[in-house]
Amino acid sequence: MNRKTRIAAALAASSLMLSGCYVVPGPDGQLWHVIPGHAPASGVPPYPTGGAPGPVSLNVRLYPANESATQTGVLTGTVINMMTGKGRFQLNYKGEVLNGEATRVDGDARRGVASAFGPSGTYMSCEYQMSNPRQGAGTCTLSNGATYKAHIGS
To answer: pLDDT tens digits, residue range 39-65?
Structure first.
């Protein structure tokens, strides 16, 4: 076997080993699982699916919306969108980690509520609207009356 043939064989073997399923954004903002070499069926979007989209981690930024909230400034947190109408919500408020969940409102795939609670009794309630699975906005209120405008995603 000459050198060019060995290089071609090595490249072919490498591409076969690396040709697993991967994820790309679809035309509707959803994540699509793509299997290389599999053509989509008739009527299916150009991104063939290999199953339901997996969870997506989203950054959340909360901007003060009243006098009480200005004492802390901008807060940051994360939401893990499970792509099932549910999510996990977490943020740090004055050194206390609040954990909770986000749930879409029944009958409306874009609107939802989120709640989080901390070990010393601090809690937060939010209402939000998603423009797509990776971006949304809403309002959050803490147990001390501080109100924030929430920006979800990039």
So the answer is: 444 333 443 445 556 788 999 999 999
Amino acid identity for residue 146 in this structure? A
Helix (H/G/I), strand (E/B), else coil: 24: strand
Strand partners, 137: 129, 151
Confidence of residue 2 (pLDDT cuts 50, 70, 90): low
Taking the CA atoms of the chain, what radius of gyration do you get in angstroms? 22
Q: Is the pLDDT of residue 100 over 50?
A: yes
pLDDT at 134: 85
**Are 53 and 31 in contact, with CB atoms under 8 Å apart?**
yes
Beta bridge partners of 80: 57, 88
Comma-separated ranges of CATH 2.40.128.120 domains in the chain: 56-153
Specify the CATH class of 56-153 in words. mainly beta
Contact 147, 69 (CB under 8 A): yes
Buried b / exposed e over 43-58, threshold 16 CB at 10 Å, is eeeebbbeeebeebeb
Structure-token match 């986000």, residue found:
102
Please say if the pLDDT value at position 122 is more than 80. yes
Is the torsion defined by CA of 3, 5, 11, 13 positive or negative? negative
